[in-house]
Amino acid sequence: MSANWGNNIELSLFGESHGKAIGIVIGNLPAGVALDMDEIRWQMKRRAPGQNKMSTPRVEKDEVQIMSGLLDGVTTGAPLCAMIENSDQHSKDYSLLKECMRPGHSDYPAYVKYHGYNDVRGGGHFSGRLTAPIVFAGSVAKQILRQKGIIVGAHIQSIKDVYDDSFGVDITCEDLQQLTKQQYPTLNSDVFLKMQNVIEDARMKQDSVGGTIECAIINVPAGLGNPFFDSIESHLSPLLFSIPAVKSVSFGMGEKMSELYGHEANDCYYYEGEKVKTKTNHNGGITGGISNGMPIVFKVAIKPTPSISQVQSTINVKTKENTKLEITGRHDPCIVPRAVVVVESMAAIGILDMMKDI
Amino acid sequence: MSANWGNNIELSLFGESHGKAIGIVIGNLPAGVALDMDEIRWQMKRRAPGQNKMSTPRVEKDEVQIMSGLLDGVTTGAPLCAMIENSDQHSKDYSLLKECMRPGHSDYPAYVKYHGYNDVRGGGHFSGRLTAPIVFAGSVAKQILRQKGIIVGAHIQSIKDVYDDSFGVDITCEDLQQLTKQQYPTLNSDVFLKMQNVIEDARMKQDSVGGTIECAIINVPAGLGNPFFDSIESHLSPLLFSIPAVKSVSFGMGEKMSELYGHEANDCYYYEGEKVKTKTNHNGGITGGISNGMPIVFKVAIKPTPSISQVQSTINVKTKENTKLEITGRHDPCIVPRAVVVVESMAAIGILDMMKDI
Amino acid sequence: MSANWGNNIELSLFGESHGKAIGIVIGNLPAGVALDMDEIRWQMKRRAPGQNKMSTPRVEKDEVQIMSGLLDGVTTGAPLCAMIENSDQHSKDYSLLKECMRPGHSDYPAYVKYHGYNDVRGGGHFSGRLTAPIVFAGSVAKQILRQKGIIVGAHIQSIKDVYDDSFGVDITCEDLQQLTKQQYPTLNSDVFLKMQNVIEDARMKQDSVGGTIECAIINVPAGLGNPFFDSIESHLSPLLFSIPAVKSVSFGMGEKMSELYGHEANDCYYYEGEKVKTKTNHNGGITGGISNGMPIVFKVAIKPTPSISQVQSTINVKTKENTKLEITGRHDPCIVPRAVVVVESMAAIGILDMMKDI
Amino acid sequence: MSANWGNNIELSLFGESHGKAIGIVIGNLPAGVALDMDEIRWQMKRRAPGQNKMSTPRVEKDEVQIMSGLLDGVTTGAPLCAMIENSDQHSKDYSLLKECMRPGHSDYPAYVKYHGYNDVRGGGHFSGRLTAPIVFAGSVAKQILRQKGIIVGAHIQSIKDVYDDSFGVDITCEDLQQLTKQQYPTLNSDVFLKMQNVIEDARMKQDSVGGTIECAIINVPAGLGNPFFDSIESHLSPLLFSIPAVKSVSFGMGEKMSELYGHEANDCYYYEGEKVKTKTNHNGGITGGISNGMPIVFKVAIKPTPSISQVQSTINVKTKENTKLEITGRHDPCIVPRAVVVVESMAAIGILDMMKDI
Questions:
Q1: Among candidates D6, D23, D31 on the partner chain, residue whose Cβ is nearest the Cβ of B118
Q2: Signal peptide span per the entry (chains A, B, C, D) (predicted)?
């Protein structure tokens, strides 16, 4: 499945950056959920470009229209279709991009796969703009999860080589909700200034930088998930790798886990009253593919935006010759801050889909 | 889907460590494939325990029986069912494990999910032993892929903090095939002795260590994969996270990608004759979720075996009290060497499933 | 899966009769297909109401807008989203329908399933109007199939107890294409007048009638399909039962097959030159779930429209009392003629989805 | 999906008639279900051949072995694998069947699909013998459904042109359970003698006959199912069409519905105390794809066994010539009585899969 996803809820993502509209259909949502559209719009604004000098100056209004599935603000149980019309499209000449493959982008693989018929304007269906409907869906999922006490939140873990702290074992819902209120969510409030400098520095060099995002999901009851092909990790990772530019997904301590001794890596259980907890949370709330009741914690790594203004060497698939390419236009020197809410959204969608009793 | 998997080929995994048998059903394989059973047995031996002091002294014969789908050594097109009877089971008393939850294991989440009815003997369905039928399926997949010129291979990238080199941009099929002939495949032949020392040291301390495995798939044609929910990363990662103890999956340079500048991370295209190549392969052969023709390269991180003989603190779910647990029995101080062929197998299964023309 | 469907191509259906819009997303279509939009509009017109006195006088323009996946009239390979805005909605009072459950409709089951939150206006998501986007998708599928020489066509087999002939074993593509040009496609040209009389008679009595539709798919190569869960019958039947009011799906001679002797039912093979044919086609081109190269023939039975103006007894779920209901408004006394193209569409979608090489 | 099936529970069917074994894997069953193996064996005996002169004299012991998922007679939550070894295989010469395609069988389509590599001995994977593991799975499903008060039962509706009565609107669980105790379940006790005569008559003529089976599922709560692609009809029909020889599936009155007026076809609701009922049940307990709380009733038509001893004309795919074929061996003149429990099993599996709260 490529455009469609889900075992329980059902997603269908559509649209191209400079086509008529982008959007998403969300099937199998419970009926009777009163959606807080103001909050949804606010979540979508967290992703929207043009809010400061660190992101692209494009102004995408991202005004979402509900085409179906909502009546008087309440879900009807029928598929919820949200659509965002594309308006701020520049009708510039894209013919060069049909021939000269931008390094690090989908251009060449897509050219081969679609025999040159793919819409290359603004990245077409591969555009990061497609994450706007994802954030819509994620915001809906978050509202439903919140009614069950489940809270999703994330922070920027690093920009290039500037690192924030990691979530502690005692992370709370309040901590997560506080993070969503920060324009650049970090646990250590000092670190973002350094991050900003790194990003600004990259912009001045016509270059770009990447980073990592750490996300936590609190209050997932123990016993959710499965062994093997539908472990929580197996269920969430395809969603996370669907986010353009994500090159790594890790749970708990992730790769660092491989450098520990067993006695360090194991999270020891204890009773706190009747509640089962672990003293550490190196496994990120999941063992054997199933939740243990501790916060589910994971991290994604995002590569630097491939769109840079520096001259790069590449190929021209029409002339079949090696060539040089200079990409012009409006680019984010770093998409990590805008990707935080996208990561949260995928996490919320994935967890909601695993809950049979929604 | 938990036990079943696949869009194109279809897997169904069954069995418990101390049940009657473990096995796998593989549906939708092409008819007319002459399976090299000797090679399959050899691949399965790469995973089997008891071969040296670094792995568990259990002797699992892993003798695979074909129950269906093969006639005169050739696939019939009907589901191929392979079964391995469990023979070397110790009938020791497992009652303690029903009450005392081993840290780092699936015990507690499984206890909650299955209301205490799960088979805890030897880890039950969560046992690493279930990877034996996975290797069977992977070996079949490799043979089919090889007929198309596609080769899968892997090496131990690290054991604890001892690191091997990484695959270079010019890795060849011969390199990969050479690796499979090494009992402990590493690129740098000196490094395994250090790795052995780390493992042996852990064993002496009644502890365990983890590591990482890097895998490459060569000759996947450009244009395989999809944007978003069925990107190559999204397709392979659930399989890789199905391997017990895998906590991280990354493609290309993975997390390190997040520390590069865009001009460093982008892989620049060039023509070598008619063939399109990239000068570097930081993206691991995939951009926009689709293959670009370069080797697909990924890495998984494996946590240290949670079974250690040291005393650990945990809970007793029957008495609802905190307690201490000392696990006896035969354990691998490090499963990484045996996991190499499991990782290769999942990669082969995942890529084969994405090819429509099998 | 409820709103989403497909193994190979991917459908996602959305919309409610009196919501903002209805539509469909079609994923995994091949890139580079030049769509004949005039033909698509003509196919959609075959389904549209308001064309004569036998169907509802509602004028639904069904003007389809392409939101994504098409560039310069050619598919891009990205999901193709088609949308039809709802315009001819009467803002009449639907409060009675929220309480009084119409017999034969989805009202009561939907009331229970959606806890009363479903949109009841015009039938909401259950409206036959949702078949308009299905016809869009089916028309696209037909165009792709036609490039492979595969032709789909159907005729009205019966209206109430007035029966047309059945397809013969030697049905041709030309026959099928001729049928699509008839406003009321029947094989026996005399029979439709009788059918018209039955429908007109039902209208005068404020009643409704049903009927059956027989469909053929010609030139499906032998060897398509699977045994068991993905037999051609198993693949097509869920699509056909998705058409509102279909209560029976049968292949070949269908139920009548159960009254034959084996020697009558078996279709005997013979070579006509190099081509394999059968002397009869009682099995409708499918044995063992797989096509044998003969026309695939099936039949669906459609119940009489449940919307009738006669007084009916029912329940009021608010007052919890038995009551009487008189449905007013514009109703089709018979939807069978309009359903012909819907049946063809589902057949085309189902067959296209089974072809790996699209 | 061909060998695998299910949204919620997961089936994987394997085996060939004369291979080593046939079997099924059932994933995602609830843990903690104590299986009544005696009842399962009895249900399987209802399907087994060799019990009287009306079925094939083959003695298939169908002794089921549980390979995984059951501990001390209780489900563990891990995949339940049941296997039946093939023992009563005649090692006769099957070379003729590799060349001469039996009319009405899967031989020719399978020959094309599998390029001649399919196992033709005893029908291979297409053998009706594969329904034995289906009955195992269905028996498990029935036991779980029964704990929720849901009962499944069926009767022979017709053999050739001898018809039994149909289920009435007031069918009870007791009625259904009574039927399972009859070796040849019919509502009208007189009718089976006539049916027996028809079957015996066919045997004497070296011919075969088919028939129909009507099935009811009682106490399915209102609100189960979905509109469109996952309607109850869409969910059950692929399972029913997976049963070899089924050519028609209809719900409620089925095809006869198409001959009624709307005022006759509509099932009028009324309150009986607090319970909602309908006066008639022409819609078979389903409107809009969703259950209304009345018994779910459907019918399947089964074609006459294609294996007949009469000489038939066919093709030889090796010599590419038309030829004559005389099939020898042990054949059922009528499989309908043995298929009753198979139909019940598929119904139970399908309904269980739709219930999220299992």
A1: D31
A2: none
Read off φ and ψ for residue B128, nearest 5 degrees: -60, -20
Structure tokens at C318: 């608010």
Question: In this structure, which CATH number among 3.40.605.10, 3.60.150.10, 3.40.50.2300, 3.40.50.720 belongs to the domain D90-354?
Answer: 3.60.150.10
**What stretches in chain C show pLDDT beneath 50?**
none
Contacts of D86 (CB under 8 A, 6+ apart): D15, D17, D18, D19, D20, D21, D22
Number of H helices, E strands in chain D: 9, 18
Q: Find the closest chain C residue to D220 by CA distance.
A: C109
Reference A113, options A101, A131, A128; nearest CA is A101
For residue C38, report the phi and psi dihedrals to the nearest 5 degrees: -65, -40
Closest CA to A268 of D74, B306, B31, C81: B306
Please check whether residue A285 touches C, CB under 8 A. no
What does the alpha-carbon distance between residue A223 and residue B115 come to, in Å, rounded to a whole number?
A: 9
What's the token pair of residue D341?
A: 């429990």
- How does pLDDT run across A307-343, given as a tens digit for each residue? 999 999 999 999 999 999 998 877 889 999 999 999 9
Beta strand ranges found along chain B (DSSP E): 4-5, 10-15, 21-27, 64-68, 70-71, 74-75, 80-85, 151-159, 162-163, 211-218, 246-251, 269-272, 275-278, 286-287, 290-291, 296-302, 311-316, 321-326
- Under DSSP, is residue B228 helix (H, G, I), strand (E, B) or coil? helix
B61: tokens are 């014969």
pLDDT surpasses 60 at D54: no
Q: Fill in the DSSP letter of residue B6.
A: -
Helix (H, G, I), strand (E, B) or coil at B50: coil
Say if C289 is an interface residue toward chain D (CB within 8 Å): yes
- Hey, are the CB atoms on C15 and A117 less than 8 Å from each other? no
CA-based nearest distance D202→chain B, Å? 33
CA distance A72 to chain B (A): 32
Residue B250, burial from CB neighbour count under 10 angstroms (0-12, 13-18, 19+): buried
Kindly tell me the sign of the dihedral angle through the C-alpha atoms of D139, D144, D147, D152: negative
pLDDT of residue D216: 98
Q: Are D263 and C311 in contact (CB under 8 A)?
A: no
Domain boundaries, given as residue ranges, for chain D: 90-354
In the DSSP assignment, the letter for residue A261 is: B
- B329 contacts: CB under 8 Å, gap ≥ 6: B92, B307
pTM, full prediction: 0.97
CB distance B133 to B62 below 8 Å: no
H/E stretch holding C81 reads strand C80-85
Q: Report yes or no: D11 and D5 within 8 Å, Cβ to Cβ.
A: yes
CA B121 from centre of chain: 22
Architecture in CATH of B4-354: 4-Layer Sandwich (3.60)
Closest by alpha carbon to D211, among D334, D104, D106, D343? D334
Q: Which amino acid is at B172?
A: T
- Nearest by CB to residue A288, choosing from B126, B208, B307, is B126
| C251 reaches D (C-beta below 8 A) | yes
Q: What CA–CA distance (Å, rounded) separates C4 from C12? A: 4
pLDDT at residue A356, rounded to an integer: 77
Residue type, C254: G
Q: Please report which helix (H) or strand (E) contains residue C112, including its range.
A: helix C107-113
C-alpha to C-alpha distance for A267 and A276, rounded to whole angstroms: 12
What is the β-pairing status of strands C151-159 and D290-291?
Answer: unpaired
Q: Is the pLDDT of residue B334 over 90?
A: yes
Q: Which two tokens stand for residue A358?
A: 């929604």
The ipTM is: 0.96
Instruction: Kindly report the backbone phi and psi dihedral angles of residue A147, in degrees, each rounded to the nearest multiple of 5, phi listed first.
Output: -65, -20
